Amino acid sequence: MEIARAAINGGARMLQLRDKLRDKGEQLPLATVLRDLCAANDALLIINDHADLAAAIGPDHVGLHVGQTDLPVAEARKILAPGQVLGRSNRDPDLIIESQQMGADHVAFGAMYTTTTKPMIRNPQGPERLKQARAAAQVPLVAIGGITAANVGPVVEAGADAICVTAAVGSAPRSRSRRRCAYRRDSSRRRTGLGRIPDANPLQLKAGGHVGRRR
Ligand SMILES: Cc1ncc(COP(=O)(O)OP(=O)(O)O)c(N)n1
Ligand SMILES: Cc1ncsc1CCOP(=O)(O)O
Fold first, then answer.
1. Mutation to probe ligand 2, out of 117, 121, 213 (largest number of atoms < 8 A from CB)
2. Taking the model in full, what pTM does it have?
3. Mean pLDDT of residues grouped by 10 in the chain (215 residues)?
4. Key word Metal-binding present in the record (predicted)?
C-alpha cells in the first residue's frame, strides 16, 4: 500500500493488482483497499486476469486486464458490469487489431525492454516495433516491460498513450514520492478509463505503479 499511495500521490491514474500467487479470496482485502484508494483519487484499479474479482469489487473505479490466454473479451464482459474498462495484452500488431475487434477498451504492447519482472519468451520489442503497434491501435495503447525514467522517452515518442511500470516503482527509493505509472500522450484517442489520466511529463516518472507480487 505504501507503493500504491506513493504512485497515486505522484500522479499515477491507474494501478494494477497483478498477483500470480494468491487465491482470489486472499487478494480480496488488498483489492478492496486499492479500489478505495483509487476511488478517493479519481483513479482506476485494474485487476489482472480475474474478471470475477474485478466484478466483485466493481464496477466503480475497477477494470480488468486480460492476456492472450485469459478469458476472451466477450466472455470477460459477461462477468463484468457494463462500462467496466477492459484491456488486453498483445505481442504483435496483428493481435492488437484482433483485440480491438474483440472489443478491448485499450491494448497493451510489450515487453518494450528487457525485464526481470516476468520471464521473457522473446526479444524486447523496442520503440520501432511500438511504432507498428501504434499504427495498428485505434484505442489507447499502453506500453509495458522494462520501462524506466531513463528509457521512457523513446517509448513516448513512438506513440504510447500510457506507460505501465512495475520494477521502476517497486524498487524506487522510498524518499522519492513522485511516482507515476501511467502517462497520457494524446487526449484525442480517449474513450476509456485511460481518458481520465491527466497529461503528465514522462520525465517525472520516478518509478511506475504496479501493485502485487512478481512472478
Ligand atoms: C498493462 C498490462 N499489459 C500487459 C500485461 C501482461 O498481461 P498478461 O499477458 O496477461 O500476462 P500476466 O500479467 O498475466 O503475466 C499486464 N498485466 N498489464
Ligand atoms: C507483466 C508484464 N507483461 C509484460 S512485461 C511485464 C512486466 C513489466 O514489469 P517491469 O515494469 O518491472 O519491467
1. 117
2. 0.85
3. 94 96 97 98 98 98 98 98 98 98 98 95 96 98 97 98 94 51 39 38 27 32
4. yes
Cα 48 to averaged position of ligand 1 atoms, centre (Å): 7
CA angle, 123 then 127 then 132, to 5° = 95
d(CA 32, CA 62): 10
Q: Is the dihedral of CA 139, 145, 146, 148 positive or negative?
A: positive
C-alpha cell at 111: 515487453
Which residue's CA is the nearest one to ligand 2's atom 6? Answer: 145
Mention the CATH class of domain 2-204. Answer: alpha beta
Helix (H, G, I), strand (E, B) or coil at 88: strand
Neighbouring C-beta atoms of residue 34, cutoff 10 Å: 27
Answer for the pair 146, 112: CB distance below 8 angstroms, yes or no: yes
CA distance 202 to 150: 10
Instruction: Cell 503497434: give the residue.
Output: 133
The cell 500510457 sits on which residue? 162
What 3 state SS string does 39-59 have? Answer: HHCCCEEEEECCHHHHHHHCC
Domain ranges for the chain, please list them: 2-204
